[in-house]
Design a protein that fits this description.
Strand content: under 5%
Largest sheet: none
Distance between the termini: 32 Å
Structural class: mainly alpha
Number of helices: 6
Radius of gyration: 16 Å
Shape: globular
Length: about 120
C-alpha cells in the first residue's frame, strides 16, 4: 500500500466504495473493458486478467505447473489466486456463484472472444 504524507479528503474505505459503485454502474463487457483500460495501466490490467485467467483451472483441480504451461501465468500468481480462492474475502467465490467463471479452454482449440483483450 502506498504511504501518503497528506490526508486525502475521503477515507480509503469511502474511496473504495466509490470505485465499487463505478464498476457496478458499467453496462456490458464493452463498457467495462473501456473503463478498465482507462482506469488501469497496461501492466495492472494484465495482472488482473492473469489472475482471472487461472481461476477456472484451479476450480477444476489442475496442477499449478500445468496451469502455467497452459496460461503462461507465473506459478507464484497461480498460488496467490489459489490462496484467495480458499481463504480470501469471498470475492472469487461470489463470481463463481454468479456463473462469471469462463469455461476451460480445450487444448488446440481457439479461445472465445468473451474475455478482456488488449487493443491491437
Amino acid at each position: 500500500m502506498k504511504r501518503r504524507f497528506l490526508d486525502p479528503e475521503t477515507s480509503a474505505e469511502s474511496a473504495e466504495d466509490n470505485l465499487c459503485r463505478a464498476l457496478l454502474s458499467m453496462k456490458g463487457v464493452a463498457e467495462m473493458r473501456s473503463f478498465l483500460r482507462d482506469l488501469c495501466t497496461p501492466a495492472e490490467l494484465e495482472a488482473l486478467v492473469d489472475r482471472w485467467r487461472v481461476v477456472p483451472y484451479l476450480l477444476q483441480g489442475v496442477a499449478y505447473r500445468e496451469i502455467h504451461e497452459r496460461t503462461a501465468v507465473s506459478v507464484t500468481t497461480i498460488g496467490r489466486v489459489a490462496r484467495f480462492l480458499s481463504q480470501g474475502n469471498g470475492g472469487y467465490q461470489a463470481a463463481v456463484e454468479h456463473h462469471a467463471v469462463p469455461p476451460l479452454r480445450r487444448r488446440g482449440r481457439p479461445a472465445s472472444n468473451s474475455g478482456i483483450h488488449k487493443k491491437s
